[in-house]
Amino acid sequence: MSTLADFPIASKWPASHPDRIQLYSYPTPNGRKVGIMLEETGLPYEPHLVTLKDADVKSPEFLSLNPNNKIPALIDPDGPGGEPLGIWESGAILMYLAEKSGQFLGTGTQRWETITWLQWQMGGLGPMFGQLGFFVKLGGKDIEDPRPRERYINEAKRLLSVLETKLEGYEWVAGEYSIADMAIAPWLGALEFYGAKDMVGWADYPRVNAYFDRFMARPAVQRGLNVPDAG
Ligand SMILES: N[C@@H](CCC(=O)N[C@@H](CS)C(=O)NCC(=O)O)C(=O)O
């Protein structure tokens, strides 16, 4: 039987409340998904700030939990069968917390609709918006060749159109408010940080605009956005 103390990450980021879910994260779109989910469910948790610097995400302690050197990652000391569970990849974490809490995943058809849109975010919206950010705001912004920038602007527009169409008659992407919304909406918020809203024609997607505002108006979302507190 293992305990939290058996996880090397707990020596670099010690737990004050070892009985609570331990979150290792930073408030980026991928990190925020999990902070928001923890706030929405009310599950007790302890956040640890892991920066994106190599000294944190590439430290042996962090890699021992997530060999992919990316936040978010989490340990539930009370995982399946009462054993501690280490888990990473934000989509997997959202599904785990949804199953554990019995919230925001649904059952039957609703469950699969939620998983479908969650995977759409994980495989499409997140990676494509991330590349867009790289080429318009971050390391790739000075590259003269316009093709990478155009490629990701066009792909972002395409994805926003898909979401705009889906939201016709829907308040939330899978019908009920779900982990799919908690995955998608933080990435919509990244467009502001990238200074890319005009580039992708944000105003041309009124249902997406209203959806994002609806999401941001939730008190748990507001609390979860800065988890862990990065100051
Ligand atoms: N597919 C992963 C992506 C996570 C991810 O890209 N995390 C970024 C911050 S948003 C990160 O930790 N980057 C640090 C690095 O790549 O060194 C997930 O959804 O959890």
For the structure shown, list the relevant keywords.
Glutaredoxin, binds glutathione, 231 residues, globular, Glutathione_S-Trfase, transferase, 10 helices, Glutathione S-transferase Yfyf (Class Pi), Chain A, domain 2, Glutathione-S-Trfase_C_sf, Glutathione S-transferase
Describe the structure.
The longest helix has 29 residues, at 108-136. Helix 6 packs parallel to helix 8. This protein folds into two domains: 4-103, 3-Layer(aba) Sandwich (Glutaredoxin), CATH 3.40.30; 108-218, Up-down Bundle (Glutathione S-transferase Yfyf (Class Pi), Chain A, domain 2). It is of the alpha+beta class and 231 residues long. It is built from ten helices and four strands, in the order H-E-H-E-H-H-E-E-H-H-H-H-H-H. The protein has helices at 9-12, 29-41, 54-57, 60-65, 90-101, 108-136, 147-166, 179-194, 206-216, 219-224, and strands at 21-25, 45-49, 73-76, 85-88. 52% of the residues lie in helices and 8% in strands. The structure holds glutathione. The site of glutathione has 10 residues, from loops. Keywords: Transferase. GO terms for molecular function: transferase activity.
